């Protein structure tokens, strides 16, 4: 019987430990939220037409501290090159950014409604992207920790108006 060289056993065990690397999803919530919200931007891209701003409704971000919330906002400002507001639909209406005649926004409103940490490496996020009463989508995304980063495994529209 041939013996297996120590170097092969070492490489194999290192690969196994890297593949099973532990990650605490709670410590990467900003990356998870960014991935989920960014996936929303890619769905029903017609809603992004002539977009002057992105509003992020952070009313469900209770468990996040301010630096994490700010990093999410900064990401969207840098990536999309438009003003990023922190506001609910009611707050946008109060700021006269909702046009009552067309029942629409000059931008889009992103909202995370439910987050389910199904495991340390997988998170289910449900939310919505709103432009108008007749231009909105509900989105369900699975965010997965793979290759050392959080990324979208699957994202789909669950409803639309």
Keywords:
alpha/beta; 30% helix
SSE blueprint:
Layout: H1 6-19, H2 29-42, E1 53-57, H3 66-80, E2 83-86, H4 89-94, E3 98-99, E4 104-119, E5 122-132, E6 135-146, E7 149-160
Parallel strand pairs: 1-2, 1-4
Antiparallel strand pairs: 3-4, 4-5, 5-6, 6-7
Helix pairs in contact: 2-3
Q: What can you see in these coordinates?
A:
The chain is of the alpha/beta class and about 160 residues long. It has one domain (about 25-160): Roll (Nuclear Transport Factor 2, Chain: A). It is built from four helices and seven strands, in the order ααβαβαβββββ. Strand 5 (about 120-130) and strand 6 form a beta hairpin. Helix 2 (about 30-40) packs parallel to helix 3.
CATH architectural name? Roll
Order of helices and strands: HHEHEHEEEEE
Portion in helices: 25-40%
Number of domains: 1
Task: Give the structure's gist in a few sentences.
By secondary structure, this protein is of the alpha/beta class. The protein has 4 helices and 7 strands; from the N terminus they run H-H-E-H-E-H-E-E-E-E-E.
